[in-house]
């Protein structure tokens, strides 16, 4: 098969990568997309680097076997820990990562704190610190690790008291301050956007999926590997839990209105 007709693979520790894949469905409707979620081992964001690397490599191996022409590490945590090693090993396939959208949040140029929600691992990695040095040095940036939010989304909790109370407890120290933007630095979090919006009001809520998909598109264009077929692409969902429940949740998330 010609490279351009091969699928694009997405991996995540669980169902979060679907928020990135949704952006790809919009921007690249003719592409065939495969998502592998490792819900059996989620959350990654509180594991050791060794564990995260091992799990990420095995998810990528799954997508390589599916003949993917490009692979999106649709997980901030796995990107921050494993992207360099992955690129070393898989030299033939472009590997695209995602990182917290600090740059667009700073470029809004609005007064107030920027709150970065992410997993504990993402927030303490060098890659993230480098991002802050490059773009955020003159702004007040608050780190808000929210590991439990991943577990709520993995259970399909996108609204209701449990989610609202959790988010309130996290945002409480900042509710009297001006917040200019909230960066969703974990691909699970966009599924809780409505609930986050209720708490932070007018603050802009930004995630990295738009930038990641833009980069994916540019890379495929440069390699002359964009799918030029006239028909709509296919979507395949795989999950390490392999249960009907998780596949139902994935389908629900793919069609959920999150704005
Ligand atoms: N969705 C992931 C991310 O973007 C990780 C969630 C987790 O497994 O902790 O960071």
Automatic annotation (TrEMBL):
<feature type="binding site">
    <location>
        <begin position="187"/>
        <end position="188"/>
    </location>
    <ligand>
        <name>substrate</name>
    </ligand>
</feature>
<dbReference type="InterPro" id="IPR004391">
    <property type="entry name" value="Glu_race"/>
</dbReference>
<comment type="pathway">
    <text>Cell wall biogenesis; peptidoglycan biosynthesis.</text>
</comment>
<keyword id="KW-0133">Cell shape</keyword>
<keyword id="KW-0413">Isomerase</keyword>
<feature type="binding site">
    <location>
        <begin position="76"/>
        <end position="77"/>
    </location>
    <ligand>
        <name>substrate</name>
    </ligand>
</feature>
<dbReference type="InterPro" id="IPR001920">
    <property type="entry name" value="Asp/Glu_race"/>
</dbReference>
<comment type="function">
    <text>Provides the (R)-glutamate required for cell wall biosynthesis.</text>
</comment>
<dbReference type="GO" id="GO:0071555">
    <property type="term" value="P:cell wall organization"/>
</dbReference>
<feature type="binding site">
    <location>
        <begin position="12"/>
        <end position="13"/>
    </location>
    <ligand>
        <name>substrate</name>
    </ligand>
</feature>
<feature type="binding site">
    <location>
        <begin position="44"/>
        <end position="45"/>
    </location>
    <ligand>
        <name>substrate</name>
    </ligand>
</feature>
<dbReference type="GO" id="GO:0008881">
    <property type="term" value="F:glutamate racemase activity"/>
</dbReference>
<protein>
    <recommendedName>
        <fullName>Glutamate racemase</fullName>
        <ecNumber>5.1.1.3</ecNumber>
    </recommendedName>
</protein>
<dbReference type="InterPro" id="IPR015942">
    <property type="entry name" value="Asp/Glu/hydantoin_racemase"/>
</dbReference>
<keyword id="KW-0573">Peptidoglycan synthesis</keyword>
<comment type="similarity">
    <text>Belongs to the aspartate/glutamate racemases family.</text>
</comment>
<feature type="active site" description="Proton donor/acceptor">
    <location>
        <position position="75"/>
    </location>
</feature>
<dbReference type="Pfam" id="PF01177">
    <property type="entry name" value="Asp_Glu_race"/>
</dbReference>
<keyword id="KW-0961">Cell wall biogenesis/degradation</keyword>
<dbReference type="GO" id="GO:0009252">
    <property type="term" value="P:peptidoglycan biosynthetic process"/>
</dbReference>
<dbReference type="GO" id="GO:0008360">
    <property type="term" value="P:regulation of cell shape"/>
</dbReference>
<feature type="active site" description="Proton donor/acceptor">
    <location>
        <position position="186"/>
    </location>
</feature>
<dbReference type="InterPro" id="IPR018187">
    <property type="entry name" value="Asp/Glu_racemase_AS_1"/>
</dbReference>
């Amino acid at each position: 098969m010609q490279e351009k007709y091969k699928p694009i693979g997405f991996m995540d520790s669980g169902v979060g990568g679907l928020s990135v894949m949704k952006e790809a469905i919009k921007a690249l409707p003719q592409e065939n997309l495969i998502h592998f979620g490792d819900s059996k081992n989620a959350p990654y964001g509180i594991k050791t680097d060794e564990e995260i690397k091992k799990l990420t490599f095995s998810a990528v191996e799954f997508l390589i076997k599916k003949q993917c022409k490009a692979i999106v590490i649709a997980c901030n945590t796995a990107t921050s820990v494993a992207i360099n090693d992955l690129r070393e090993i898989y030299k033939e396939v472009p590997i695209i990562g995602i990182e917290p959208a600090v740059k667009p949040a700073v470029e809004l140029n609005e007064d107030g704190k920027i709150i970065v929600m992410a997993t504990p691992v993402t927030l303490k990695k060098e890659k993230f610190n480098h991002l802050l040095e490059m773009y955020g040095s003159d702004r007040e940036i608050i780190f808000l690790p929210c590991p439990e939010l991943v577990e709520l989304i993995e259970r399909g909790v996108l609204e209701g008291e449990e989610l609202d109370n959790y988010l309130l407890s996290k945002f409480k120290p900042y509710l009297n301050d001006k917040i200019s933007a909230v960066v969703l630095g974990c691909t699970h979090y966009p599924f809780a956007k409505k609930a986050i919006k209720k708490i932070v009001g007018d603050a802009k809520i930004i995630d990295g999926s738009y930038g990641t998909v833009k980069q994916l598109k540019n890379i495929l264009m440069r390699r002359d590997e964009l799918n030029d077929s006239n028909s709509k692409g296919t979507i395949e969902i795989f999950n390490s839990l392999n249960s009907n429940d998780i596949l139902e949740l994935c389908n629900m998330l793919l069609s959920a209105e999150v704005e």
